[in-house]
Structure prediction request, 223 residues.
Amino acid sequence: MIFELNRRKFLRSLVYVGAGLATSAGTICYLSEMVGKKVAERLPPGQHEVDKLQVLHVGPIPKFDEKTWTFEVYGSVNKPLTLNYQQFRQLPKAMSTSDFHCVTGWSKLNNKWEGVLFRTIMEMADVQQSAKFATIESEYGYKTSLPLEDFSRDDVLIAYRLDDQELPPEHGGPLRIVVPHKYAYKSAKWVRRIKFTEEQELGYWETAGYSNTANPFKDDRYG
Prediction:
């Protein structure tokens, strides 16, 4: 009798364990589906995920000489700025993790950037009320621009670190701007100057036929 009772308990336990394993397997599958769904939702139309940032740029990688390098802010501002590299690195830091979408069709998710909020530069330069846009000027005359409302978001940085490492030259070091809600040609590499303007100035790719608004979630690639 005792054996029979124990046997029944044992059989019941097997049923519970089996049910538990089935439930766990179902939960794992469900979580996998949810993760996949979230990734899919984060990918704009026509994009596919890659495991690392690709290297695309205009012109060769410039040489960085910290002794002569400067960062300039000018145009419609009350306090123009010229900073050397060490002065820039001493500005208030900010970090943001965001996705990066290239107009050529690839996206790299979860990039951890560290640098200076674009808003911080605006505050330091005391941007005039008449200014509505900013032009980012990089090495080799590369330019791009956006309205100030785009640059003022919490995740828009002028970055000098990526994924806890110094920003590599091939990815825009020493400084690149990061504008996650736009295609990557708005996130210019090798930034040297920022010009605040009342009228928008079209940049390198925009004058070549690419979209000026560059919204990846609207598949807004071409003008």
Helices lie at 2-42, 85-89, 118-125, 148-151.
